[in-house]
UniProtKB/TrEMBL annotation:
Originating species: Castor canadensis (American beaver)
GO molecular function per UniProt: acyltransferase activity
Broad class of the protein's primary localization: mitochondrion
Name used for this protein in its record: Dihydrolipoamide acetyltransferase component of pyruvate dehydrogenase complex
Gene: PDHX
Any Pfam family hit: E3_binding
Gene3D superfamilies cross-referenced by the UniProt entry: 2.40.50.100, Chloramphenicol acetyltransferase-like domain, E3-binding domain
Presence of keyword Acyltransferase: yes
Record-annotated Peripheral subunit-binding (PSBD) domain positions: 183-220
Length: 501
C-alpha cells in the first residue's frame, strides 16, 4: 500500500514516527546512521533535504599483514555510482608482502573514491573511499570533516621538466660571486680561522682537492715570514659579475665533481655527476628493514656440511620414469622437516623473552620475485609426501610471483630454506628471518671425485654428487652443538631417501 506523506513537523516529531536504525560499517568504520520507513513510502518530498542524508560508510586503509604500516592502491574494481554487495571486491591493495583484494562488508553504492588507483604509501586507517546506502544521493556525498587527507600519498611518477635551472643558478652565483669554494678539512678550517687566513691564498694538496691541515700550517709559516698579509675575505655582493673574481680564484685547483649534483630528469640520459632515484616497493622496504633488524639484533652462528646426493638422484630418476616430477629441493625440504621432527629443540623461535617451542613443522621456502624475496610456507611438511610437497611448491611459487599469496600462506613458519643452487652458487650464508631461529642455505650439487674403500679394503676412485648446505642459527636458541647435531641428522636423512618416504 503506497503512501504519500506531507510533513510539516519538526525533526523530533519526525524521529518519533520514523525511528533510526544503526548501520554496519565497511572495514574499520562504524556508527553510520540512516533514516528508514516502511515499504512503499514515498520520500520525494524531502529526499533532497540535507539533514536526511545519512552519514556515509568510510572505507579505510586496512591492516592486511602483521608488518604492514602502509599500502598502495593498485586498482579499483568498482566505479563511483556502482552498486556494491557484501563480499564484492572493491579494490586491490599492495601490502608489504603481496597484492590483496579488499572486500565489502555491506550493501550500498560506491559514492566516492578518495584515493585514486596508483597512489602509494597510504597510512593505515586513512580514508580511501565512501559508500552510501542505496537510494541516497551518492553524487553529492561529502567527505567527513573528522577525516584528514590520506597522507602521505605518492601518485604515479609522471615525467616532468627538471627544476634544475631554477635551483642551480642561484647556487652557482653564491659560489662564484666571491672566492672559489675550496673543500677544507676540519683541522685546516680551525687553523685558518685562528690565524685569519684564507685557503685561496695557498694550494690544496689533499685528495680530490681537499685543503689539508699541512696546507694550512704552510700558510701560517708564510704569514710569519711576512710573505702573506692577514686577511679575511668578505662575501662579495651578488651584483658583482663572475669575471671580477680575483686572479688567484681561477688559479686554484679544479675539482671536477659538483658539490651538489643536480637530480636526473626521468626519461633522459644521466649527466656527469647526477644520479637516478629508484623507487622502492613496499616489499623491498620491509625486506630492508627486517634484514637490518635481524643482522643487528640476532646473534648469527653458521655451520656447514657436504651432503652426497647420489641416492636422491637415483630415486628422482625412478620417479621421473613413472611420470612423477619432483626436484632435488623437494627432497631437501622433506629431509629438513623429518630432521625437525626428530629434533624438536631446533623447531623453536625467540619471542623476546626466551625460546618458544612451536607446535607444527612449517617450512618457509624462499622464492625470488620481481619485487623482492618472499617465503611461502609448506604447512606440516613432515606429514606430506615428496610429490605433495612438489605440487605445493609449484602452486605457491606461481602465486608468489603473481603477487597473489594470501596472508596465511606466507605468515609464520618455523624453519626457512633458501636454495640458490639453480643459479650456480656453490655455497652461501643466509640471514635469519625472525622470529624463526634457523635458515638453511643450499648450494648447487657438483661432481666430486673421492677415494672409497670396498668391503675387502680395496680403494677406488668414485664420482660423487655433493651439495654444500650452511645453516644460520640464532645462538640464543640453537647453540653450535645443537646446530652440528641437526646437520648430522639432516645429512643422514638426505643421503638415505628411504627415510623420507
Amino acid at each position: 500500500m503506497a503512501a504519500s506523506w506531507r510533513l510539516g513537523c519538526d525533526s523530533l516529531l519526525l524521529r518519533y514516527f520514523l525511528g533510526f536504525r544503526g548501520r554496519r560499517s565497511l572495514g574499520l568504520a562504524k556508527g553510520a546512521v540512516l533514516l528508514s520507513v516502511g515499504r512503499g513510502a514515498s520520500w520525494r518530498w524531502f529526499h533532497s533535504a540535507q539533514w536526511l542524508q545519512g552519514d556515509p560508510i568510510k572505507i579505510l586503509m586496512p591492516s592486511l599483514s602483521p608488518t604492514m604500516e602502509q599500502g598502495n592502491i593498485v586498482k579499483w574494481l568498482k566505479k563511483e555510482g556502482e552498486a556494491v554487495s557484501a563480499g564484492d571486491a572493491l579494490c586491490e591493495i599492495e601490502t608489504d608482502k603481496a597484492v590483496v583484494t579488499l572486500d565489502a562488508n555491506d550493501d550500498g553504492i560506491l559514492a566516492k573514491i578518495v584515493v585514486e588507483e596508483g597512489a602509494k604509501n597510504i597510512r593505515l586507517g586513512s580514508l580511501i573511499g565512501l559508500i552510501v546506502e542505496e537510494g541516497e544521493d551518492w553524487k553529492h556525498v561529502e567527505i567527513p570533516k573528522d577525516v584528514g587527507s590520506p597522507s602521505p600519498v605518492t601518485k604515479p611518477a609522471v615525467p616532468c621538466p627538471s627544476p634544475e635551472p631554477q635551483i642551480a643558478s642561484p647556487v652557482k652565483k653564491e659560489h662564484t660571486a666571491g672566492m672559489l669554494q675550496i673543500r677544507l678539512s676540519p683541522a685546516a678550517r680551525n687553523i685558518l680561522e685562528k690565524h685569519a687566513l684564507n685557503a685561496s691564498q695557498g694550494t690544496a694538496t689533499g685528495p680530490r682537492g681537499i685543503f689539508t691541515k699541512e696546507d694550512a700550517l704552510n700558510l701560517v709559516k708564510l704569514k710569519q715570514m711576512g710573505k702573506i698579509t692577514e686577511t679575511r675575505a668578505a662575501p662579495a655582493p651578488p651584483s658583482i659579475p663572475t669575471a671580477s673574481l680575483p686572479p688567484q680564484a681561477t688559479a686554484g685547483p679544479s675539482y671536477p665533481r659538483p658539490m651538489i649534483p643536480p637530480v636526473s630528469t626521468p626519461g633522459q640520459p644521466n649527466a656527469v655527476g647526477t644520479f637516478t632515484e629508484i623507487p622502492a616497493s613496499n616489499i623491498r622496504r620491509v625486506i630492508a628493514k627486517r634484514l637490518t633488524e635481524s643482522k643487528s639484533t640476532v646473534p648469527h652462528a653458521y655451520a656447514t656440511a657436504d651432503c652426497d646426493l647420489g641416492a636422491v638422484l637415483k630415486v628422482r630418476q625412478d620417479l621421473v620414469r613413472d611420470d612423477i616430477k619432483v626436484s632435488v629441493n623437494d627432497f631437501i625440504i622433506k629431509a629438513a622437516a623429518i630432521t625437525l621432527q626428530q629434533m624438536p629443540g631446533v623447531n623453536v623461535s625467540w619471542d623476546g623473552d626466551g625460546p618458544k617451542q612451536l607446535p607444527s613443522i612449517d617450512i618457509s621456502v624462499a622464492v625470488a620475485t620481481d619485487k623482492g624475496l618472499i617465503t611461502p610456507i609448506i604447512k606440516d611438511a613432515a606429514a606430506k609426501g615428496i610429490q605433495e610437497i612438489a605440487n605445493s611448491i609449484k602452486a605457491l611459487s606461481k602465486k608468489a610471483r603473481d603477487g597473489k599469496l594470501l596472508p596465511e600462506e606466507y605468515q609464520g613458519g618455523s624453519f626457512s630454506i633458501s636454495n640458490l643452487g639453480m643459479f650456480g652458487i656453490d655455497e652461501f650464508t643466509a640471514v635469519i628471518n625472525p622470529p624463526q631461529a634457523c635458515i638453511l642455505a643450499v648450494g648447487r650439487f657438483r661432481p666430486v671425485l673421492r677415494l672409497t674403500e670396498d668391503e675387502e679394503g680395496n680403494t677406488k676412485l668414485e664420482r660423487h654428487q655433493l651439495i654444500t648446505v650452511t645453516m644460520s642459527s640464532d645462538s640464543r636458541v640453537v647453540d653450535d652443538a645443537l646446530a652440528t647435531r641437526f646437520l648430522e641428522s639432516f645429512k643422514a636423512n638426505l643421503e638415505n631417501p628411504i627415510r623420507l618416504a
